[in-house]
Amino acid sequence: MSTPKRSACGMQMFTVDQCTACGHCAYPPRYLCPRCHGAQWKTRRVVRGILQQYTETRGRDAEGAPRTVPLATLRTDAGPLVVARLAGPAVKGASYTLTLQDQALIATPDSP
Ligand SMILES: [Zn+2]
């Protein structure tokens, strides 16, 4: 199973599980590898993703003020798709750095 690792600056690194038999990466974690049915996993760090799709969720915060949260689907450099909150403009096909902050996956643009 994936467990967050803390970097020196306090942010948590994002990881996925990688099958030790065939190298397939899975997220969320799975009991058996969907490719080879292996059950041995190691942790693989995921650094970047490429933005595939973008949307915004609209709601209200705890005080009732309108709130918009930008969300993106990204293809990680390890293979699996993830959904992350965007910390910058959405550019389809652009590269983003993925980090965990308070259990939330954040995608930060690699170039402004
Ligand atoms: Zn496998």
| Tally of DSSP β-strands | 9
Low-confidence stretches: none
Strand order of the largest sheet: 5-6-7-9-8
> Average pLDDT across residues?
91
Could you name the CATH class of the domain at 5-13 and 46-109?
Mainly Beta
List the helices and strands and how they pair.
Layout: E1 5-6, E2 12-19, E3 25-26, E4 41-46, E5 48-60, E6 66-76, E7 81-86, E8 95-101, E9 104-109
This protein binds zinc ion.
Description:
This protein is mostly beta strands. The protein has a domain at 5-13 and 46-109: OB fold (Dihydrolipoamide Acetyltransferase, E2P) (Beta Barrel). The protein has strands spanning 5-6, 12-19, 25-26, 41-46, 48-60, 66-76, 81-86, 95-101, 104-109. β6 and β7 (81-86) form a beta hairpin. The N and C termini lie far apart (34 Å). Zinc ion (ZN) is lined by residues 19, 21-22, 24, 33, 35-36, 38.
Short description:
This protein is 0% helix and 54% strand. It is an all-beta fold and 112 residues long.
What attributes characterize this protein structure?
binds zinc ion, mainly beta, 0% helix, 9 strands, OB fold (Dihydrolipoamide Acetyltransferase, E2P), 112 residues, single chain, 5-stranded mixed barrel
